[in-house]
Please model this.
Amino acid sequence: MNLHFSISLKLTIIVVAVSASVIFSLTLYNINEQAISFENIYVDKAKDTGRLFDIMFSLSKEDVKINQFLEKINQSKEINRIDIYLTEKNTTQLFYTTLNRAENSIANEYVNLSIKTNKQVKIPQYSDNHYNLTIITSMNTSNNYTGAYAIHFSIDKSYKAFEAKTTNLLLISTISLFILIFGFSFL
Model:
C-alpha cells in the first residue's frame, strides 16, 4: 500500500513539528533559567548573611554577642539553622550553631572546599517531600579569622510555588500547541 500526501499536508506537518519543537524548547529553556534564578536568590541571601557575620566577627568574638546575633538571624522562617566553622591550628571545627547540640564538630569536605577556594558551595537536598538548600560561604574578615558559614534554608514554600509556575507554563505551552494544530487542521 503506497500512501501519497498532498504538498499542503506535508507543509502543515512540517510547520506544526517545527512550531512544537520551538514552543517546548523555549518552555524548557525558560524553566531552566527560572530554576537558576530561584537558587540565586538564596545564594544572595547567604552572601548578605555572611557579610553580616563578617562584620560581627570583626567587631567581637564574644560568645554571648555572636549567639544573640545567631538567634536573631535564625528567626527567619526560611533559615533552618546556621553553622559557623572556624579554623584554628590547621583544623576547621564547628564553633557556633543554632542547634542545641552539635552533630559533628569537624568540618565536612564542602566546608573545607569553600574555605580553600574562597567560593560558595550550594548543596540542594530533597527528602520526604522537604526541599532544603545549604549554602556554605567562606569568611572574609579583617581579623585574620578563617572559616566558613553554613546556612541551611528550608525552601518548601518557595519550591512549591516554583513547581506550580512550572506546571502552569507547561500547560500553557501544551494548550498553545493544540491551538496551533487545530488551526493548521483547517488549511
About this structure: The first strand starts at residue 79 and ends at 88.
